[in-house]
Amino acid sequence: MSADTPLMKEPDAHTNPPVDGSELIRFEDVTKRFGSNTVLDRLNFSVDSGKHVTLIGPSGSGKTTILRMLMTLTKPDEGTVSVDGEKLFPAPEKQLREVRKKIGMVFQQFNLFPNMSVLRNITEAPVTVLGMSKDEAEARARELLDLVGLADKAGARPTQLSGGQQQRVAIARALAMRPRVLLLDEVTSALDPELVAGVLDVLRDIARTTDITMLCVTHEMGFARDISDQVLMFDAGRIIESGPPEKMFSEPEQDRTREFLSAVL
Amino acid sequence: MTWDWSAVSDFMPQFWDGLLVTLQALALGSLISFVLGLVWALLMRAPSRFVRWPVGVVTEFVRNTPLLVQLFFLFYVLPEWGVTLSALTTGVIGIGLHYSTYTMQVYRAGIEAVPAGQWEAATALNLPRIRTWQVVILPQAIRRVVPALGNYVISMLKDTPMLMVITVLEMLGEARLFAQEHFQFTEPLTVIGVAFIVISYLASLLLRSLERRLVR
């Protein structure tokens, strides 16, 4: 793993403005119901640019829904979600496309395109969406593959790779779009235990060497402790406690948090 | 009943003509049904019900009326409206249109079988919708439906004799013509029967090798 490969060589026009620590993401009174089940209950929180925020809590407590809303994959029933000052819902498709440019997402099930080579998985969007030349996109894709330790797999098909390798390709694919925000949705949950460390190492590198804002839903508490600036504890669609990882993992205030942590640690 | 080999050899020139027409009808009919079926399937996913509704009604109508009736209609009614096509062209359009209403169902199933995660990944990468169809969804959907489409090719092959009723001299038409001229039915009908089996068998071999290549 080449930890010291600079991921962002220079900020370029349509992506990475300098991080100024200003507010990038805001949820205001957001409610989401699936049938009679309320997954988010008048939720309020914000994330500043460049921060790494981890969302923890029991399954079904709404963490994934938050990431999916930011990626415009699901809509809130009430309340507003904004990214960089722009409201997401309702917004015309054109505006959603602008917002999506700033956000990348890595999924639990990788969701690589099985009909394309690894390289093409990574270059497709930079070429079609960002208008990068094929050569430039490929050169960059190879850099990213090197970063995730898969330089030799450019020509492989996703199905020829292990789950851990597929997930690392998915990370490279998301980074190729030079997002300001990276959403990580339980990215190691579908992996065999021995493959988890490789993926988390890559993410630690990214957290350390870039200024990408990260929102991370995970059950890997050691990883959460390492990378987070802030940990949000969810229960029944609300944030019941939040704070820096040192505090959250060592001396949580809420019984529910303590209970949850003792169950997963 | 006696078997007369000389009748077989006498029938051969006409048989080859008929075979050629059958294969033409099959190839072009398949092509139309594959393309048109995909068009129907995509239109059925249009956001507006003012697109979906008429397409649904028309294809439902075509699927649930007999091909034979449609062939007669195209052949005898269209000319009254000033559209005159050759018998073979009419037949190819008829069979292709009819089967497109079946292949559309196959495509629909194939499209629905592409996991939602593929759409979500495409959205997350901000791929435009058309591009998502082109490079993500359809390549995966079509790969899945090749076997089912192939089965319809074989069904279509077995429906090509219907073209005889609109004067297309495909294999059955040639066999009947020969039989009426020579009063020998057994030989020409047996020959074309065997030909149908051979064509289906070759087609299924071709399909299986295609499937194997696509599944990789």
Automatic annotation (TrEMBL), chain A:
<dbReference type="GO" id="GO:0005886">
    <property type="term" value="C:plasma membrane"/>
</dbReference>
<comment type="similarity">
    <text>Belongs to the ABC transporter superfamily.</text>
</comment>
<keyword id="KW-0472">Membrane</keyword>
<dbReference type="InterPro" id="IPR003593">
    <property type="entry name" value="AAA+_ATPase"/>
</dbReference>
<keyword id="KW-1003">Cell membrane</keyword>
<dbReference type="GO" id="GO:0005524">
    <property type="term" value="F:ATP binding"/>
</dbReference>
<dbReference type="InterPro" id="IPR027417">
    <property type="entry name" value="P-loop_NTPase"/>
</dbReference>
<keyword id="KW-0813">Transport</keyword>
<keyword id="KW-0547">Nucleotide-binding</keyword>
<dbReference type="InterPro" id="IPR017871">
    <property type="entry name" value="ABC_transporter-like_CS"/>
</dbReference>
<dbReference type="InterPro" id="IPR003439">
    <property type="entry name" value="ABC_transporter-like_ATP-bd"/>
</dbReference>
<dbReference type="InterPro" id="IPR014343">
    <property type="entry name" value="Ectoine_EhuA"/>
</dbReference>
<protein>
    <submittedName>
        <fullName>Glutamine transport ATP-binding protein GlnQ</fullName>
    </submittedName>
</protein>
<feature type="domain" description="ABC transporter">
    <location>
        <begin position="25"/>
        <end position="261"/>
    </location>
</feature>
<dbReference type="InterPro" id="IPR050086">
    <property type="entry name" value="MetN_ABC_transporter-like"/>
</dbReference>
<dbReference type="Pfam" id="PF00005">
    <property type="entry name" value="ABC_tran"/>
</dbReference>
<dbReference type="InterPro" id="IPR030679">
    <property type="entry name" value="ABC_ATPase_HisP-typ"/>
</dbReference>
<keyword id="KW-0029">Amino-acid transport</keyword>
<feature type="region of interest" description="Disordered">
    <location>
        <begin position="1"/>
        <end position="21"/>
    </location>
</feature>
<dbReference type="GO" id="GO:0015424">
    <property type="term" value="F:ABC-type amino acid transporter activity"/>
</dbReference>
<keyword id="KW-0067">ATP-binding</keyword>
<dbReference type="GO" id="GO:0016887">
    <property type="term" value="F:ATP hydrolysis activity"/>
</dbReference>
UniProtKB/TrEMBL annotation, chain B:
<dbReference type="GO" id="GO:0006865">
    <property type="term" value="P:amino acid transport"/>
</dbReference>
<dbReference type="InterPro" id="IPR000515">
    <property type="entry name" value="MetI-like"/>
</dbReference>
<feature type="transmembrane region" description="Helical">
    <location>
        <begin position="20"/>
        <end position="43"/>
    </location>
</feature>
<comment type="similarity">
    <text>Belongs to the binding-protein-dependent transport system permease family.</text>
</comment>
<keyword id="KW-0472">Membrane</keyword>
<dbReference type="Pfam" id="PF00528">
    <property type="entry name" value="BPD_transp_1"/>
</dbReference>
<keyword id="KW-0029">Amino-acid transport</keyword>
<keyword id="KW-1003">Cell membrane</keyword>
<dbReference type="GO" id="GO:0022857">
    <property type="term" value="F:transmembrane transporter activity"/>
</dbReference>
<dbReference type="GO" id="GO:0043190">
    <property type="term" value="C:ATP-binding cassette (ABC) transporter complex"/>
</dbReference>
<dbReference type="InterPro" id="IPR014341">
    <property type="entry name" value="Ectoine_EhuD"/>
</dbReference>
<feature type="transmembrane region" description="Helical">
    <location>
        <begin position="189"/>
        <end position="207"/>
    </location>
</feature>
<dbReference type="InterPro" id="IPR010065">
    <property type="entry name" value="AA_ABC_transptr_permease_3TM"/>
</dbReference>
<keyword id="KW-0813">Transport</keyword>
<keyword id="KW-0812">Transmembrane</keyword>
<dbReference type="InterPro" id="IPR035906">
    <property type="entry name" value="MetI-like_sf"/>
</dbReference>
<dbReference type="InterPro" id="IPR043429">
    <property type="entry name" value="ArtM/GltK/GlnP/TcyL/YhdX-like"/>
</dbReference>
<keyword id="KW-1133">Transmembrane helix</keyword>
<protein>
    <submittedName>
        <fullName>Ectoine/hydroxyectoine ABC transporter permease subunit EhuD</fullName>
    </submittedName>
</protein>
<feature type="transmembrane region" description="Helical">
    <location>
        <begin position="81"/>
        <end position="99"/>
    </location>
</feature>
<feature type="domain" description="ABC transmembrane type-1">
    <location>
        <begin position="19"/>
        <end position="207"/>
    </location>
</feature>
